[in-house]
Design a protein that fits this description.
This protein is 9% helix and 32% strand. It is mainly beta. The longest helix has 7 residues. The termini are far apart.
Amino acid sequence: MTQQPAQPARPQHGASSSIGAPGARHPLSALGALGIFGSLAVGSPAWAASLQLQLELPRLNVAEYHRPYVAVWVEKPGQAGAMAQLAVWYDLKKANNGGTKWLRDMRQWWRQGGRDLSVPADGVSGATRAPGEHSLQLAQHAQLAKLPAGQYELVIEAAREGGGREVQRLPFSWPLRAAQSASAQGEHELGALRLNAQP
């Protein structure tokens, strides 16, 4: 009797294919196709730290109101000069970058490095804001990424044409290894300020 060649065994229903089997898809490639690695990558929203500044510009009862210029930067206590420039709001609509003429009215910012900042600057310059509450997300700012570990102050200065000038400071630690919060209450050109941090 002629012996028939043995037929290959059929895989049982629900059985997994071997990783090395021809045509089998490697589990890691499947994860990549689902975008799992991309969503968990460092720096993605799932892992991103949060450093949020809530800034209030008060409504003032004055005859002629001009939106204030505002600067936000980082200083290290006891050291001169800005460690990071985070935001500068000024009049971007003036022709030939004319709004920069009054940046020096933010005298503290100007002395601490503002005079050396070339504006408009990507990620830093912005238009003036109307009275009300404003939120700035700062954790992913390129300037902060360069800071060495330590204790710092977030400095906020506002100056208004025909008005006054005010500076407030909020302490924080960098990098963000624990939840932090700090608040201050402005007196005239600034309203309520709050800094919230989550690692």
